[in-house]
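Field reference: "sequence" (input) and "structure" (output). Example, histidine kinase:
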Amino acid sequence: MPERHMPHPILTSAIVCELDVIASRQRARQIAAHCGFGSHDQARIATVVSELARNAFSYAVGGRVAFSLGVRGARQMLEVVVDDTGPGISDLDALLARAGESHHLAGSGLLAARRFMDSCDITTGSSGTRIVLVKLLPLASPAVTALELARDLAGVAMPSNVALSEAHHQNRELTDALAALQERQDELVEVSRRLEQTNARVEELNRLLNEKAASLMSADRQKNEFLSMLSHELRGPLSAAAMAAHLLKKNPGASTQTIGLGELINRQVGHMNRLVEDLLDVSRISRGLISIVKAPVDLRDVVNAAVEQIMPAAQRKGQRVELALPPAPCAVEGDATRLVQVIGNLLGNAIRYTGHGGHISLSLAQREGNCALQVADNGQGIAPELIPHLFDLYMQAEPSSERQHGGLGLGLALVKSLVALHGGTVTAASDGVGRGSRFDISLPLLQLQAAPAPTQAMSTA
């Protein structure tokens, strides 16, 4: 520890009234200036002395402030002693701990002393309190003696009582303002603490959400991998069943019953194959692996190909399928196979959810730079609450407890995904349960230099 020499007194002032508190502040600033401290440190030293002098007056009804000049090691130092004969400071440690978050003036003064001075020693008890403050003089300041400081200060007049009284009034206003600011600061500190707690909770929620998202993504990936594996595993048995059904039909000695069973097996295998293909497509779309090969396609040809595929199913239910195709090509840039799949899915749903003898219509037209295709039926219709979710995966148009038709709820989800890959849109509408349904597809029209084709309009039953 640096060697410390006995300090030499400069000035001692009694504190018996508010004016003495203000005078102590003035003297502290004057002494700090003569010691070579800059304006910033002068203000700090004056503030500390003023606050501690005020504490002595307010809590001990008086005291004194003594200024001295000493040496610590090779540095000169200004020593300020503030003491009183009051009852002492009870629970000093707790007061200092709360000083930063409370507007208790005694605590604030002690806190300022510990922050602004190089050392602050506090001794308190029933016989009074003694506070010793030390501030090392700036390295660049010239050496000065206590005698010189005392002589210089003797030539500096203190403000008159009138000036001190006015300063006291202003000081009181500043003190009140400081208390109000401190109270506001306490509120801001509390708000900041609550915000930190809220932020911590938000961060924890984000962490949990990220974990849940990662878990869901992993589960979705595993589901897609399982669907892909399941679809491939089902292909083998289905191919064998289809071959067996074909051999039964081709057997010259087969009975009528055997041939009928062969045809039944063949239809069910075809249905299963379509489900397997839908599962594979769902898996590919979910993983972004599905690909389409775009080329100029006349949607009239696509419609005819899709109708040809579904006609046997419509004929078995005695349904009438009516087409209305435009005379000119309705060309789009797309994958013909996938577009046949889209229209086939819509027609297949219409057949499935329309009763025997029902009516299904398909119309195609050019409208506002797009090819507009509509599939409509007079079947069981769709409940209004199901419309917004109709194109979701695994969504069925009828409750599971009332299901009368097959399917996994994949067809419309595939339709939406494939149409989107072609830059188009698909919507569904229904006037209610039992009143049929309509599906509208819009695809960007591709302008082709081709001769108009003959008008096509046909009705099949």
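The chain is about 50% helix and 20% strand.
Residues 100-104, 399-403, 450-461 have pLDDT under 50 and may be disordered.
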